[in-house]
């Protein structure tokens, strides 16, 4: 069978990573890349370089990847949908839930495979975590707390930390729990002199009753990507920066020091760091999208799911702006 003809729109930092992986994946042939600035980093290889999504479509595509700034996702996505091209759009899906709804309608009405690049769902630590939670290894789940912080990335200009970074945590939390958000309350800060927020603290709940919290910023000198799930039997800690998963088990040995024991709800038990396969998440994401386009059984993050994530992100911004808790179920 001939390889699928793939096109890539956008050759910024993320686009260059997409180009590298698309060149390496079996059953895919990167035939075209589009960027108004051209291929300044020389990543196109044998692919034809054009300057627009229209010219990219004219090359004849079996699938496309959109990695341009978020403000251009709607226009590019709608053109690809009209052309009948299955498309993966980088997260966030669009700048607003209204724009997301237009993309969802365009691709679903055309019956096209569609996806959003929420790459954390392909992180080995989170894949293992989700499977273990689904298998009941933690028992009753109480809380999910995430921390995602680091220096400001100069490549981001059109959205704030909520839609660029916090959308990772919103999506992965709903996914590992298999439960959508029911409410959020948030506070933001603007410390770097930019138009958009560069820090957010979120607390909320899911429809399953789990308490969630997210701390996200572009103001920290160290890079941190942690997801902690606490439950009846202990706590899982997923370090998605390194793909590590650790389980901190509740202790079964009584604490002999009575003054300490009286202050502890649980005691410290064994700590297990799991040995898990660590494949590159971006490669896994593209293989899954390829398989979905080929009609194989594959899990992708649909645009409808991406729209739900943007809706929660908007609720967080509304909560911070209006200083109130936002009910997402209503």
Automatic annotation (TrEMBL):
Pfam families: GFO_IDH_MocA, GFO_IDH_MocA_C. Residues 131-328 form the Gfo/Idh/MocA-like oxidoreductase C-terminal domain. It comes from the Bacteria. Gene3D superfamilies: Dihydrodipicolinate Reductase, domain 2, NAD(P)-binding Rossmann-like Domain. SUPFAM superfamilies: Glyceraldehyde-3-phosphate dehydrogenase-like, C-terminal domain, NAD(P)-binding Rossmann-fold domains. Residues 5-118 form the Gfo/Idh/MocA-like oxidoreductase N-terminal domain. GO terms for molecular function: nucleotide binding. Belongs to the Gfo/Idh/MocA family. This is Dehydrogenase.
